[in-house]
Amino acid sequence: MKDKIGVLLINLGTPDSPSVGHVRSYLSQFLNDPRVIDIPWLLRKLLVNVVIVPFRASKSAKVYKKLWTADGSPLLYYSERAKELLQQQLGSQYDVYLAMRYKNPSIPDVLETMRKKNYSKIIVLPMFPQYASASTGSALEEVMRVVQKWWVIPELRLISQYYDHADYINGFVERGKQHRIDDYDHVLFSYHGLPQRQLDKVYNDGPCDGHNCEHEVTEENKFCYKAACYATTRLIAERLGIPSSKYTVCFQSRLDEGWVKPYSDEVIKECGKKGMKKLLVFSPAFTADCLETIIEIGEEYQELFHEHGGEKVQLVESLNDHPSWIQCMKSLVLQN
């Protein structure tokens, strides 16, 4: 009889409901993470707990109410669907669990359930294809924080990134084929933004700029989020036959001007000013549709584009429960 293996999927997280109280609690946990806002402790506490959360919770709650469906949070719904489908694909030798880095189901609670199962091996798979300290790094750190306190620590396999996995790329290619790409004036590949300083911390020999991250992946930049995003884009664009002149890589959701450029909202404005009427937007950093895709791209960028002369911003659906995404996760588990 073979030992069972535990598989832990981790996504970013979502408020328990769109109420102001639940959104406030979610934002507080999320933004107080030192890997998310990587500034000195006291400054972060003041910025998050005195400035950002008190003034942003009510506004964010209104946005989450627009996002919420009869099934609740789309991110949680599709993450649970992916977990169920992966369990079906892996079979009885594996037990698949889902945790959220922030809020519920929490990493400590889910890991406690797994600890009691006495698995000989646990495979941890964050649902973030491109490594970033603020996403994958934070999730893996939290797992290690919990597991290091166990008396018995099983074999652990931690998966850091897989942006170039053939099945992951194929999933977005198949999503793209649902649209007539030639009907669009331009294609955007919009990734979640990060402070530039977080990219710089990847390197021992200076800042990110100068490592040619827009054009190649090397030993030096292989864990640079920017390099991974550009590489992801090249792989998807090549499969879909989109020439480099017809697409732009950009970064959304910035908090200030010190984030990695170009900014998605500024690119949207420029496209409108240039007379473009239809844009197709991929967001390959997200494997489940969420506030950043459905609302930020699908609604806010649509309004912004229209204000600057454009007509239609078409969001390409995320992987969600696409068979290629399930196959990607299955392959990653079996490889580990």
Give a quick account of the main beta sheet: strands, pairing sense, barrel closure.
4 strands, parallel
Oligomer: single chain
Q: How far apart lie the N and C ends?
A: 20 Å
Number of domains: 2
Taking strands numbered 1, 2, ... along the chain, how are they ordered across the largest sheet? 2-1-3-4
Give the H and E element order: EHHHEHEHEHEHHEHEHEH
Structural class computed from helices and strand pairing: alpha/beta
Cα radius of gyration in angstroms: 20 Å
According to CATH, the fold-level topology of the largest domain is Rossmann fold
Let me know the number of strands: 8
Catalytic activity: heme b + 2 H(+) = protoporphyrin IX + Fe(2+); Fe-coproporphyrin III + 2 H(+) = coproporphyrin III + Fe(2+)
Keywords: Cytoplasm, Heme biosynthesis, Iron, Lyase, Metal-binding, Porphyrin biosynthesis
Pfam families: Ferrochelatase
Protein name: Ferrochelatase
SSE arrangement:
Layout: E1 5-13, H1 20-31, H2 41-67, H3 74-90, E2 94-102, H4 107-117, E3 121-126, H5 133-147, E4 155-158, H6 166-176, E5 186-192, H7 196-200, H8 225-240, E6 247-252, H9 264-273, E7 278-282, H10 291-307, E8 312-315, H11 323-335
Parallel strand pairs: 1-2, 1-3, 3-4, 5-6, 5-7, 7-8
Helix pairs in contact: 1-2, 3-11, 6-8, 6-11, 9-10
Protein name: Ferrochelatase
Pfam family, one: Ferrochelatase
Subcellular location: Cytoplasm
